[in-house]
């Protein structure tokens, strides 16, 4: 509401939105499959069979809690007389979802498209041809497709949001043919505000490059750090005449602005938000502001010409229009319940349209670099939170740093061990970090996690790990061909992997052929 009013008051204003880890590819896929943007919702508790192509349904992200609850209800022990759910996963990196899979196939990211095309061909989608599969891929495909067919209306095909949109669109077609739409998957209008070509970060960069931006206000975002280095955002920002930053921290973007306005923390602010199922909540502060800060809504009200009003006035104005004559009663009830009644997203009828997949480049013989959000500090916005830095990452159990995750096969080929410094190259851009061997990772896949290598934004955030945004491509933000080479040196990485070993009192002991017997432990 506020931004719409701001655009009406200032016709030359442009509102650009950017999420380093967003759902742009998923939105593109839904438009390709359904003809318009939509939000897919999965009901894991209704599934007898789940097939996932690089979709970490149980892993970190906004849907994790909802999916975990549904999975716990259905996985076998809780759902009596229905048998154990069968989970088939093909993925390039080990994930929490892959860790509980009945049938897991590690494959490089370029092979995911091959598997997707094979699934489309198996379901006889028009124009989808059967590719040549490797032996392990063929076995995985036969079991996965066989069980999808055997559980019509009780199955689910999920393709990850980082995968090529045409492969994601294929999943919508297959789920419709299997009768899953309305039972294990349903679609609603998009939860987040819809973007267009004029509201992207690339469009803003083009305007700045053309000298068309006189004043730029960065509201609670850090594009100088969290954008592909190839975009050259820092240099472009420095060319803008007037630069204002609103944020919790004096971060990398704030360092390049003439003005930095400290924002109130979310726990000090009034606002509103939507959950992943569309349910709306009115956010209330739990403490009074500790300093003379303002919320982003208060700052926008000032831009609209209003005086420095009370912190809840902007939110009240939005919901006064929505609630109408029942404002007082519904406002009080919403604050009491924690959500606005009957605000969840509603399913709408959709029909998937067949689409012939575009030709894709053959898999390269080199290394494939994939980018993923950090499981604890996400895209870097939580890098100054000590508790999250201390929290072990799933699978690797590392803390306080990000690593260059490599497969055991690649480690053996390059003679690498944990902590060895490696240089990752994509095009003419390079970054160095500590190698970490991850069992179960696809042979030629190298994984970089975002959010580290910060240069500003708090004492805890700065100096830890490497900045993966430096080599992240702007045209394909999730995967790119590259190379990995070893350089001199090592980096000590904190890990909790061996934290619970009972040295001297282990239940399982390692022995060698030279010394097959070990002395019994000494009495305490």
Describe the structure.
The protein is an alpha/beta fold and 524 residues long. The chain has 15 helices and 19 strands. The chain is 26% helix and 19% strand. Helix 5 runs parallel beside helix 7 and helix 12 (313-323) packs across helix 13. The radius of gyration is 25 Å and the shape is globular. Residues 520-524 have low confidence and may be disordered.
What brief labels describe this structure?
single chain; six-stranded mixed β-barrel; 15 helices; disordered C terminus; four-stranded parallel beta sheet; 524 residues; alpha/beta
Average pLDDT rating = 87
Taken from the alpha-carbon principal axes, the silhouette is globular
Give the C-alpha Rg: 25 Å
What structural category do the secondary elements indicate?
A: alpha/beta
Secondary structure tally, helices: 15
Strand order, sheet with most strands? 12-17-14-16-15-18
Strand content: 15-25%
Name the helicity range: 25-40%
Low-confidence stretches: 520-524
Cα distance spanning the termini: 70 Å
Strands, count:
19
Largest sheet: 6 strands, mixed, barrel
Brief summary:
By secondary structure, the protein is α/β, with parallel strands linked by helices. The protein contains 15 helices and 19 strands.
């Amino acid at each position: 509401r506020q931004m719409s009013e701001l655009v009406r008051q200032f016709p030359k204003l442009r509102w650009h939105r950017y999420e380093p880890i967003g759902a742009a590819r998923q939105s593109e896929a839904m438009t390709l499959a359904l003809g318009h943007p939509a939000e897919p919702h999965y009901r894991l508790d209704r599934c007898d069979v789940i097939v996932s192509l690089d979709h970490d349904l149980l892993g970190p992200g906004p849907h994790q809690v909802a999916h975990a609850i549904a999975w716990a209800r259905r996985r076998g022990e809780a759902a009596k007389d229905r048998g154990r759910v069968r989970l088939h996963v093909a993925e390039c990196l080990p994930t929490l979802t892959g860790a509980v899979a009945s049938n897991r196939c590690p494959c490089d990211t370029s092979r995911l498209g091959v598997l997707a095309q094979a699934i489309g061909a198996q379901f006889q989608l028009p124009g989808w041809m059967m590719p040549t599969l490797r032996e392990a891929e063929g076995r995985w495909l036969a079991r996965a497709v066989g069980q999808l067919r055997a559980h019509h209306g009780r199955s689910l095909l999920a393709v990850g949001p980082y995968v090529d949109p045409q492969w994601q669109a294929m999943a919508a077609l297959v789920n419709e043919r299997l009768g899953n739409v309305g039972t294990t998957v349903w679609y609603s209008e998009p939860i987040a505000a819809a973007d267009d070509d004029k509201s992207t970060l690339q469009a803003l960069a083009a305007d700045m490059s053309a000298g068309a931006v006189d004043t730029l206000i960065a509201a609670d975002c850090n594009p100088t750090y969290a954008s592909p280095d190839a975009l050259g955002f820092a240099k472009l920002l420095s060319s803008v005449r007037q630069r204002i930053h609103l944020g919790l921290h004096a971060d990398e973007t704030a360092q390049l602005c003439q003005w930095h306005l400290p924002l109130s923390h979310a726990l000090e602010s009034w606002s509103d938000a939507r959950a992943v199922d569309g349910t709306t909540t009115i956010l209330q502060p739990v403490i009074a502001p500790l300093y003379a800060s303002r919320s982003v809504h208060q700052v926008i009200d000032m831009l609209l010409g209003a005086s420095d009003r009370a912190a809840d006035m902007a939110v009240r104005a939005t919901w006064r229009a929505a609630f109408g004559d029942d404002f007082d009663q519904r406002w009080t009830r919403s604050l009491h319940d924690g959500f606005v009644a009957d605000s969840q997203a509603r399913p709408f009828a959709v029909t998937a349209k067949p689409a012939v997949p575009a030709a894709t480049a053959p898999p390269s013989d080199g290394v494939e670099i994939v980018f993923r959000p950090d499981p604890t500090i996400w895209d870097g916005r939580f890098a100054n939170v000590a508790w999250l830095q201390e929290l072990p990452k799933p699978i690797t159990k590392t803390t306080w740093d990000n690593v260059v995750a490599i497969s055991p096969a690649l480690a053996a080929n390059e003679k690498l061990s944990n902590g060895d410094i490696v240089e990752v190259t994509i095009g003419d851009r390079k970054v160095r970090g500590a190698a970490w061997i991850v069992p179960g990772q696809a042979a030629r896949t190298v994984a970089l996690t975002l959010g580290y290598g910060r240069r500003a934004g708090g004492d805890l955030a700065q100096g830890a790990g490497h900045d993966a945004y430096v080599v992240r491509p702007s045209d394909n933000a999730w995967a790119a061909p590259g190379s990995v080479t070893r350089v001199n040196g090592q980096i000590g990485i904190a890990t909790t992997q061996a934290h619970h070993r009972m040295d001297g009192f282990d239940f399982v002991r390692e022995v060698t052929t030279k010394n097959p017997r070990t002395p019994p432990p000494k009495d305490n």
